[in-house]
Structure formats: structure tokens, C-alpha cells
Amino acid sequence: MDTQSKIRCPWCLGFDQYVSYHDEEWGVPVYDDKIHFEFLVLESAQAGLSWATILKKREGYRNAFADFDYKVVADFPDSYVEELLHDQGIIRNKLKIKAAINNAQRFMEVQKEFGSFSDYIWSFVGGKPIQNKLQSMKDAPATSAESDRLAKDLKKRGFKFLGSTTIYAHMQATGLVNDHLVDCFRHSEVKKLQGS
User: Fold this and answer.
1) What CATH number did the domain enclosing 187 receive?
2) Is position 37 within any domain?
3) Annotated binding residues, as ranges?
4) Is 122 in the active site?
5) How much is the pTM?
6) CA distances (Å), origin 159, targets 13, 76, 89, 91, 101
7) Average pLDDT value for residue range 161-186
8) pLDDT tens per residue across span 51-110
9) Does residue 26 have an active-site annotation?
10) Is residue 3 part of a domain?
11) Residue 21 is a catalytic residue
12) Of these residues, 51, 80, 109, 189, which one is catalytic?
């Protein structure tokens, strides 16, 4: 992959997996509940770690968490939690593993109430992506009024390990907000995907 020919957000440079994630996924609007659940699992696992660490373990998570099938994850027994604590393909943190199972259960409660998790989460941004015009990385916020409200609502619904900073990262990853820098080649490409 030629990383020199295009201007990219500087956070993704220096690690091929990061570059492809930035070029193909980050900021693309997501309306698929399974993908939302995948990112919630990965982002809640990230707390205190780098996103690069999580991306390297993404395949391990896919294998350990039933290809991110929240219906299966919601029913993981305690015996499987113990098994996962020995799985080197994931972050072996009991609280984070149990949070993923809890969040799968809460996720389905949201689906029941709103029809889909996607409809629920998109309602916090008025149904269409927020288009930021960031000039540099230092302009990128860690949270927003929307992520504050969403994180508060998720907490009220019983979700765990999903504070405002983690939720803002989710919003960036799943295209609820376009935080590609304005000079990044993906900024305009992602902007065109609005409402698709």
C-alpha cells in the first residue's frame, strides 16, 4: 500500500493495519447492528490501551466472540468467561469480558425498544452524520455534547465500559461524526456517504 501518495490523518501512519482501517472503515456511516456491536465490544476492551493493540487482536475477538453475534454473546456462560481469560487472542480482563456479555443483553433490549440499535444511536445526531472541519489533530475533541448524552443514556440502560470518550470514539469509527481532517483524502469521500 502506497501511504505516501495521499494525505491522511496523521494518527494512522506507520502501521499498515491502521492505514487500511483509516482508508476503508473509519468514519463510514454504519447502519448495521452487528457492526455497531463489534465496535462496542472492541472499544470497551480498549479502555486504557491503544487502538492499535485492539486492531491487532480484532481477529482474536471475532473468533472468541462468535463473530460478534450479540445473541450468542448474551448467553455466554461463566465457564466460557473462564476459558476466555486464557485466550491470548483477546484482552484477558474479566471485567471487560463480562461487560461485553452484559452489553450484548442490553443491546437487545435497545433493539426491542427502538427496532434497531442503529435507529437508537443515530437519533442522538438527528439521523445524519455531524460533519466536522478539523484542521489538525489538536482540534479533534475527545468527547462532544452528543457523546455525553449518549453515554449517559447507555449507562442508565445498564451498559458498562462505555463512557463519553469511548462513545465519541465509537461515533467517529461508525460515521456518526466525520472527524477526518479536512485535508485528508477521506474527508470528502466520507462526507459523500452521508445518509447512504
Assistant:
1) 1.10.340.30
2) yes
3) 9, 22, 180, 184
4) no
5) 0.94
6) 33, 16, 24, 19, 10
7) 96
8) 999 999 999 999 999 999 999 999 999 999 999 999 999 999 999 999 999 999 999 999
9) no
10) no
11) yes
12) 51
Query: What is d(CA 25, CA 17) in angstroms, rounded to the nearest whole number?
Result: 11
User: How many distinct structural domains can be found in the chain?
Assistant: 1
The Cα 175–Cα 196 span in angstroms is 11
Instruction: Indicate which residue of 18, 26, 43, 168 is catalytic.
Output: 43
The one-letter amino acid code at 192 reads K
Range of the domain at 126: 10-192
Contact between 161 and 149 (Cβ < 8 Å): no
